[in-house]
Amino acid sequence: MIARQIAAEALGTALLLISVVGSGIMGESLAGGNTAIALLANAIATGCMLYAIITVLGPISGAHFNPAVTLAFLMRWEITPKLALAYVVAQVAGGILGVWITHLMFDLPILQLSTTARAGIGQWSAEAVAMFGLLFVIFGGLAARADSVPTLVALYITGAYWFTASTSFANPAVSVARSLTDTFAGILPSHAPGFVAVQLLTTLIAIPLLGWLFGRK
């Protein structure tokens, strides 16, 4: 059972990165320089994939696909530290593999480093908003109607691509993996740690607040 859970987390995160990076490459190549169209394609494809993988893999692993979400469940004592660590390793490895598979599909060099700068107070505050909002819809959805969580997450991330300055990474594994692609979705490797730090710090602050808001100690 544990092996299936870990495999589900790796597979789900790989598919998530395939959708993020692949739709970015395809959108940019077809948009003729129109970044708005490329971003729209990127957001829709990511939202669709999130709905699919959360629905299908949720019953196996809980469908975290995100070290910050795993940290949140650990803080709520709904996952053991040992399993949480295994999830995080699987998520990061799956995300990187997903990027490499995408490069292979589009006939690009498999090993890359991004050159896209994403740093500064605007980007970091955007990631705090994106991360808090993601946790809000996950745990709010679980408190109100658990079967709505796939839809809520998909809709939230699709929208957050547009209303956050960072285009809503909201995921440390995604931040690491996207530093390894010099495409539309990339982030400079030296800037990824700032995103990861903000995402994890936001999680540490958000979970007690959301526990109080939704009536859980």
Automatic annotation (TrEMBL):
Keywords: Membrane, Transmembrane, Transmembrane helix, Transport. The keyword Iron-sulfur does not apply. GO terms for cellular component: membrane. The keyword Cell wall biogenesis/degradation does not apply. It is found in: Membrane. Coiled coil: none annotated. SUPFAM superfamilies: Aquaporin-like. Pfam families: MIP. Its main location: membrane. It is a multi-pass membrane protein. The chain crosses the membrane at residues 37-62, 83-101, 121-142, 154-174, 194-214. One of its GO terms (molecular function) is channel activity. Gene3D superfamilies: Glycerol uptake facilitator protein (1.20.1080.10). Belongs to the MIP/aquaporin (TC 1.A.8) family. PANTHER family: AQUAPORIN NIP1-1-RELATED, AQUAPORIN NIP2-1. This is Glycerol uptake facilitator (Major Intrinsic Protein Family). It comes from Litoreibacter ascidiaceicola.
